[in-house]
Write a structure and sequence with these properties.
The structure is a single chain. It contains 13 helices and five strands. By secondary structure, it is mostly helical. Strands 2-4-3 form a three-stranded mixed beta sheet, with helices on both faces. It has a two-stranded antiparallel ribbon with strand order 1-5. Strand 3 and strand 4 form a beta hairpin. Helix 4 crosses helix 6. It is globular, with a radius of gyration of 21 Å. The two termini are about 40 Å apart.
């Protein structure tokens, strides 16, 4: 996590400088207005003008709004969404099934398929999950795909993006009663989703949350560690595993967490059904 925060420092310093300049400009305009009487009046206007968000107390509605802005920025970063209705509907169906039994079923989740042959998936705050077409093709069955989607939902239920942004702000000494401006939070969210690896702690937490979600939804939980093992046996580890903690360690931890009563579950393991549900995609 500390390495992740360090990667954000230089970028955040530049971004914060521009935000401060903008905020000061608003302040000078306000001070020049003769109708503003008390200091608290122009301070409030200054905060509103800069669209400040308190990171220590972000509501679900605020997170959803920040997530929507981050999603728009991500899609403008040359991230191409698949136009295949079959795979889009199928991934959304699996995602919504998992979302209903997740630790945060009250927020709206958006599941999007990225047209990219690399084996990857990622998420950002506010319920936005992205799954590459390469990962859908790499999965042998629905339960394996559900394990990856459940893991990404785990990052959202754990509010990992917001925690990293807050930690980066603390490291830079930028936290205050006001917080950070929205544009800075959104740009940091994009960096976290597309560029920077998740911390070891967050990966283990998302694994735990995703596995619990799979069990509660009814999927065969063994599919989650089995898919990780399969992908790690390739010539090179896929992006979403290569930047994460050691696969062998994660697999061992997941296997230990699966209760004996659930190890023989078979829901979602039928390979032919998986191919049939995605007919026209493969």
């Amino acid at each position: 996590m500390f390495a992740r925060v360090a990667l954000l420092r230089q970028w955040l310093q530049r971004r914060w400088l521009y935000s401060c300049i903008g905020a000061l400009t608003v302040g000078f305009i306000v001070v020049g207005q003769p109708q503003v009487g008390r200091a608290t009046d122009w301070i409030q206007i200054l905060i509103q003008g800069a669209q400040i968000v308190q990171l220590s107390n972000v509501s679900d509605a605020q997170e959803a709004s920040l997530g929507a802005e981050t999603n728009r920025a991500i899609l403008s970063e040359k991230v191409k969404l698949s136009q295949n209705s079959v795979v889009n509907n199928y991934v959304n169906q699996i995602g919504q099934r998992l979302a209903r039994t997740s630790a945060r079923p009250n927020i709206k989740y958006t599941f999007q398929v990225v047209e990219d042959d690399s084996i990857n998936a990622f998420a950002t705050m506010g319920g936005f999950v992205y799954v590459n077409t390469g990962l859908v093709k790499a999965a042998d069955n629905e339960a394996q795909l559900a394990g990856v989607i459940g893991h990404e939902i785990g990052h959202i239920t754990g509010r990992h993006s917001l925690q990293h942004i807050k930690q980066a702000a603390i490291t830079q000494g930028l936290t205050s009663l006001a917080g950070l401006d929205r544009d800075t939070i959104v740009q940091m969210g994009v960096q976290l989703a597309l560029t920077l690896p998740n911390s070891r702690q967050d990966e283990y937490d998302a694994d735990r949350r995703g596995l619990t979600n799979m069990i509660q939804t009814g999927y065969a939980p063994m599919a989650m560690p089995e898919f990780m093992k399969k992908l790690s046996r390739g010539n090179s580890a896929p992006e979403f595993l290569s930047s994460h903690p050691a696969v062998t360690e994660r697999v061992a931890n997941l296997q230990k967490m699966i209760p004996a009563a659930y190890k023989n579950r078979t829901d979602g393991l039928n390979a032919s059904t998986y191919k049939q549900n995605l007919r026209g995609f493969f």
